[in-house]
Amino acid sequence: MRFVCQESSMGLFVTLQSNFQHVLQYENLELQLKARSTIPHQELSAAAQHKLKELEEADPECKLGIEECLVLELLRWFKQDFFSWVDCLPCSRCGGPTKHDQGLSPTAEELRWEAQRVENHYCQSCRLPTRFPRLVVVGGGTSWT
Ligand SMILES: [Zn+2]
């Protein structure tokens, strides 16, 4: 019984340590600048101001401020504009349709960016496997690319 307890504690410790190291990446100034250069801040700010004006006209007692509206616009942009949603990727060589095949082993580069799992989108025409690395997000197991 004691052994199981220690094993469980070690698992928790390893998970906490791993997540701690992962979160430290968000403090990297170079990565922050790169992320900020991708975000269309002026466009989102203008949309947030427009949305706030609409909300205030609809409800003069509106408690939301410009920062809340800006966060909502950022979330909308991130989900709807930043990503492209597909069931299967188009073939990276011929652009044709692909189908899921058996998963692939991650390369050293994919592992470096924490892609633990790589989907294989196999082209029916030219038979090329198109790699689709799935990134693990801290606290979840949800993946994104
Ligand atoms: Zn193809």
Distance between the termini: 41 Å
Give the count of helical stretches.
5
Query: What is the gyration radius calculated from CA atoms?
Result: 21 Å
According to DSSP, the number of beta strands is: 4
| Bound small-molecule species | zinc ion
Number of domains: 3
CATH secondary-structure class of the largest domain = Mainly Beta
Biggest β-sheet strands, sense, barrel: 4 strands, antiparallel
InterPro entries: Papain-like_cys_pep_sf (IPR038765), PNGase (IPR050883)
Architecture overview:
With 145 residues, this protein is of the alpha+beta class. The chain folds into 3 domains: 1-38; 40-85, no CATH class; 87-135, N-terminal domain of TfIIb. 50% of the residues lie in helices and 18% in strands. The chain is built from 5 helices and 4 strands; from the N terminus they run ααααβαβββ. The protein has a 4-stranded antiparallel sheet. A hairpin with a 6-residue loop joins strand 3 and strand 4 (143-144). The radius of gyration is 21 Å and the shape is extended. The protein starts with a helix and ends with a strand. Mean pLDDT is 88; it is low at 140-145. Zinc ion binds next to loops.
Question: Which features would summarize this protein structure in a list?
Answer:
145 residues, alpha+beta, N-terminal domain of TfIIb, 4-stranded antiparallel β-sheet, 5 helices, disordered C terminus, binds zinc ion, PNGase, Papain-like_cys_pep_sf
